[in-house]
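To fix ideas, we quote verbatim one protein's residues and fold tokens.
>
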Amino acid sequence: MATKTAPDSSRRSERSRRAIYDAALALISEIGYSKTTIEGIAARAGVGKQTIYRWWSSKGEVLLEAFLDLGERNAAAAAEAAGVDPADARHIPDTGDLAADLKYVLRATVDELSDPAFEAPYRALAAEGMVNREVSERYVEKLLEPGLQLYAARLRAAQEAGDVRADVDPRIGLELFVSPLAQRWLQGTGELTHAYVDTLVDYALNGLSPR
């Protein structure tokens, strides 16, 4: 008589978690954040809403984790396609040309922000963070701050190489090109293009006064 193998609960939980992530991202894109509910996510994922509440306390938390997971999977796929270690792909390149390195990363950011798979959930997270302190804190900690640290590290390396003034605060310096990009994207005040972010970098590094 064949021996029955007990179901692997960890594998089952991972399948459920993945289904919930996919359902949350799909609903945000299809009907918007305000109309998306825990019940709707559960129904779309084929799980009970109790399963969701066992892991998360709100749809904002579900969306944040789903978005972070999407970013990690896409980054891993991009690194694999480029034949590089995923850990290396999380760093801003240091070719010795600061302007070129910043433009390279900001162009990739523009492409990502223009991708419908990212745009809808990213906008929803930004909006939810304005009214939900807990989501806002996790949004900054898990999503924004790691990226800003990469820019700050690259600017510090440029300072050590003599390419940036020693008295510049890297955390303020990075805002010269990161913040205008974020504002244009959030407010829709203009197109997001590679030429735009190239110009941001040129203005930030060279200033506005005559040379």
Observations:
- The mean pLDDT is 86.
